[in-house]
């Protein structure tokens, strides 16, 4: 079987964050131009700016954070290409939680990478990708998904109706994975209310419409950081903004 070896430094420019010059962690992409950065770097940058750090295109005049999304594919690629990066990041997160005296989330406890890395031990800075790695990852995936994300960091949410046109949920308090997105919540609410489409809904936090690709962890960090649980979200019929 033919394999192609690629030097890591030849692709560094494509897997590093322009803001911190480090490898991408929690990769987040700007939907307008598709440039990718570390989530924490980009969120901090957009607190005072509304343009892309790379191409300077205006993301949004007033709410640029609504037009960025977690890029799982890019993050998986970075973890596969850079030996030891995922383990090092997990270790830093565990140390952070221990330092604050907080319980370590289930998805941070283990050090083992879900994706297998194939590194040539005889040549520093090179990675090797072949079909067998993809096959092995595919075969292992069902075993990893058996807990249905119950071992992930969890977020407590209160879903309140913000319109007289919709009814409230019978059970408005839920607890789910921090990796769930606003889109998942829209589908959940639409199913409970028997709506024809989840696209008919807007979900808000602090009276601000949330982007469908925002994870709940991102919402908590950027809009509920210094407030007590549960995370309060409101839903209403979708409004077309001019």
Automatic annotation (TrEMBL):
One of its GO terms (biological process) is random inactivation of X chromosome. SMART domains: RING (SM00184). InterPro entries: PcG_RING_finger, RAWUL, Znf_RING, Znf_RING/FYVE/PHD, Znf_RING_CS. Transmembrane segments: none annotated. The keyword Transcription applies. Residues 17-56 form the RING-type domain. It is found in: Nucleus. The keyword Amino-acid biosynthesis does not apply. GO terms for cellular component: nucleoplasm; PcG protein complex; X chromosome. It comes from the Eukaryota. Residues 113-149 are annotated as: Disordered. Component of a Polycomb group (PcG) multiprotein PRC1-like complex, a complex class required to maintain the transcriptionally repressive state of many genes, including Hox genes, throughout development. PcG PRC1 complex acts via chromatin remodeling and modification of histones; it mediates monoubiquitination of histone H2A 'Lys-119', rendering chromatin heritably changed in its expressibility. Within the PRC1-like complex, regulates RNF2 ubiquitin ligase activity. This is Polycomb group RING finger protein 3. The gene is PCGF3.
């Amino acid at each position: 079987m033919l394999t192609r070896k690629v030097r890591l430094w030849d692709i560094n420019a494509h897997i590093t964050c322009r803001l911190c010059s480090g490898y991408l962690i929690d990769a987040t992409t700007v939907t307008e131009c598709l440039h990718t950065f570390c989530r924490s770097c980009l969120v901090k940058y957009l607190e005072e700016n509304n343009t892309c750090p790379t191409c300077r295109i205006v993301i949004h005049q007033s709410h640029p954070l609504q037009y960025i999304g977690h890029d799982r594919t890019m993050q998986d690629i970075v973890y596969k290409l850079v030996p030891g990066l995922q383990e090092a990041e997990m270790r830093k997160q565990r140390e952070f939680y221990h330092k604050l005296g907080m319980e370590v989330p289930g998805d941070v406890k283990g050090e083992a990478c879900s994706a297998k890395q194939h590194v040539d031990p005889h040549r520093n800075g090179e990675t090797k990708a072949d079909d067998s790695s993809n096959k092995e990852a595919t075969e292992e995936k069902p075993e990893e998904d058996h807990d249905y994300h119950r071992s992930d960091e969890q977020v407590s949410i209160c879903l309140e109706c913000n319109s007289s046109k919709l009814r409230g949920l019978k059970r408005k308090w839920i607890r789910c994975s921090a990796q769930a997105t606003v889109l998942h919540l829209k589908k959940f609410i639409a199913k409970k209310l028997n709506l024809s489409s989840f696209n008919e809904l807007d979900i808000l936090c602090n009276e601000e419409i949330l982007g469908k690709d925002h994870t709940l962890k991102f919402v908590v960090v950027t809009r509920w950081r210094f407030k007590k649980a549960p995370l309060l979200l409101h839903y209403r019929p979708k409004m077309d903004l001019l």
